[in-house]
Every structure is written in structure tokens, then in C-alpha cells.
Amino acid sequence: MNRKWALLSLLLLLLLTACGGEVVPPPPEAPPAPKMPEVKPEPPKTPEKLEEEALQALLESLTLEEKTGQLFFVKVPVENALEDVTTYHLGGYLLFGRDTRDKTANELIQTIASWQSQAVTYDTGIPMLIGVDEEGSTVVRVSSNPHLRSKKFSSPQRLLKNGGLTAVEAETREKSILLKALGFNVNLNPVADISQNSGDFMYDRTTGGDETETAGYVSCVLEVQSRYGLGSVLKHFPGYGNNRDTHNGTAVDERSLDTFLNQDFLPFQAGIDTGKQFPPQPAVLVSHNIVNCMDPELPASLSPEVHRILREDLGFDGVVMTDDLAMEAVSKYAAEGNTALMSLQAGNDLVVTTDYRTQIPRVIQAVKDGMLEEKVIDEACLRVLRWKLELGLLELTEEGTLGPAL
């Protein structure tokens, strides 16, 4: 029996050898698959991040000419106002008494709506800033027209005397509702200047009080105007004091820096802080006064040092605009009449001027000639676009782009 099994084993071995030679061992076990690193999904972008990306994309879609036009907040021309919206890609129109005089509310509404339609439909698609100086008392571009309001809005001094901040709040509310209904989105108000001397040029437009009273007034006005989506403008940085009227000549401010630090800056700082708490933040308008303790050579509106103080020392990162560059106090300081170019080089974002048909081409040519970096235009334009977004003129679409909210 054992012999039989031995023979069978031998035959099996011979058979295997005949079929291919050596006995093949079983394959080794495959190594375990390497663990893939865990991929965590990216957190969703915040609304603020989406808005900033959309703002940057909108900026990059604009031509140099379109970006430059957005930096001009100009006086409405007597002729071709509608055509100039597209010809110069204007950032905004600023209305004065002649633009509202004798007009009914409906006429003014339709006129403003036609400019906005032109900008949105036939130009960049970016709505315009529509601004006015409606301070009260002596500066009333709207309520001076009895078709628009039965009487002029009151001065800050009268409101504070008769009812304190409660009266200021009530009248600012009425003012904001009226201006928004007419189509305005910016009121160049409040006046943050301090003047306690009735003989001062700026006195009637101020609270007539000290820095504490003025700061309280400024914060109240900003909070109410912001509540109704109306843009505010703090003026006239760095503080007008007792200086003469710069419409008709140069004003030189001899006060010390300590005076500004301890008095004049405080209402502006209060306005800036209020804007952070109750957006949209205000813009800041810079005067044409020469302030010797900051820059004895140039008007504040053309001074890089004054703008540095506003940005760095007061921490303001919003829109800075010039006072009207047509004023006599500034024109003689601009080489070859390049007031807009100098104002942008100084750090302004919005140029307030009548002479935009000359100034806009000059700024564009200065960029092409290398006299002004396009980066300066981009940074200013981005701040203007961001302000328009904060004011509700632009909105984020479902596609993640910015479109007109009108």
C-alpha cells in the first residue's frame, strides 16, 4: 500500500515538471492601500469677502477712462448734462440752488432719474452719486424752493437752542426722507467745524458750541442720515476755525497743532467712529485753507500731509473729497491748472469741480504719460465703488457680481 502511494507521488511530481518546471509559490499579499489625506471642505466665504471680490472684479472690468470718470463728483452743467454722464463716465452730480430753483418735486425726480438711467443703461452700469448741500439756514439748496418744502430747514444753532438733539434728530429725519424721495443719495452735511465767534465766516453754519457739543451734533446727524440710507459728508477737514471765505481768496490758518488735536479733530473723530457703528460711513470733505502747522505750502485739499493725518492719525479709510476746486483759494497753487491731478496725488478720492471737461482728460493723459500711477486711480475708484455699495446703489447678484440696485 505504501509502495502504491509512493508511485502515485512520483507520477504527480513528474507530471508537474512536464507542465512547466518549478512549483510556483502563491503571490505575496498586496500591501495595504496608503491612506489619503482627509480633504476638508473650504469654509463658505463671508458676505464681506464676496463683496470685496465683486468690487475688485468690477474695478478690473473698467477702462482707465471709466475709472477716472468715477472720481469726479461734479457740478451739474447748464447744457448737455445727460450726454456728459456717458461722455465722461461721471461718478456723480452735485446740485446747487440753480438746479432746484422753481422745480416741482416731480420735475426734479424725473431729471435725476434720467441721469441715473443714462449711467446704468448706456454707460458703466454704475449708478451715480447725487448730492446736495442741505445743511439748514444759510445753505439750503432744496428747502429754499417752496415747491419742495414750505420753509427752509433750520440752522444747527436754532435746533439745539429750541429742542436740543431731539430737535436735531427730528428735523434730520424729515430732511433725509425728503432728499431720498427726490432722488438724492448724498447730503454734504453735517458741518463739523467749531466756531464760537459770531463774526467768523463759518459761524452761522456751525452749532456755535464747543468741541463736545459739535461732536454730539455730528454723531446725531450721521446716525439719522445713515438710518435712511443717505450718505453723509463731514466738512471741512481739518477744521475751518475763524478763517476767511476761501471762495474769494486764500485763507491761512495760524493755529497750533495742539488746537486741532484737542478741539477741531474731535467732531471729525466722532463722525468717523459713528460711521463705523452706523454704516454707511461718511465721506470727509477737505477745505482749501492753508494750515501752517500741517503744511505751510499748500491748501489742505492739495496737501499729502493733511491727507496722511486724516488717514493715519484719525484712522479714516473711507472716501475723501475736495471742496470745490473752482474756488480762488486753490486755483493758483495748481501748476498749469492741473487742480484735479494735484488733488488725486494728494490723496483725494472724489474731485468736486465745475471744470471736469478739462480736468478729466488731463488726469487720463497724466496716467498715460507716467505722471500719475494708475494704482492711485484704482485705489480711489475702489473706495468710491465701495461707498456706492454701502449706500445701496450697487448690490451683489446671485452670480456674485455687482449690479445696479436702482
Features:
alpha/beta; about 400 residues; seven-stranded parallel beta sheet; 14 helices
Give an account of the 3D structure.
Mean pLDDT is 91; it is low at 10-21. The longest helix is centred in the middle third of the chain and has 27 residues, at 156-182. A hairpin with a 5-residue loop joins strand 12 and strand 13 (402-404). This protein has 406 residues and is of the alpha/beta class. It has helices at 2-20, 47-61, 64-69, 81-87, 97-100, 105-122, 156-182, 211-227, 257-277, 304-313, 328-331, 339-346, 356-368, 374-390, and strands at 73-75, 92-95, 129-132, 134-136, 139-140, 186-187, 231-237, 252-253, 283-286, 290-291, 320-322, 394-396, 402-404. Strands 1-2-3-6-7-9-11 form a 7-stranded parallel β-sheet. A two-stranded antiparallel sheet has the order 4-5. It has a two-stranded parallel sheet with strand order 8-10. It is globular and about 105 Å long. It contains 14 helices and 13 strands. Helix 2 (47-61) crosses helix 14, helix 4 packs parallel to helix 6 (105-122) and helix 7 packs parallel to helix 8. The chain is 46% helix and 10% strand.
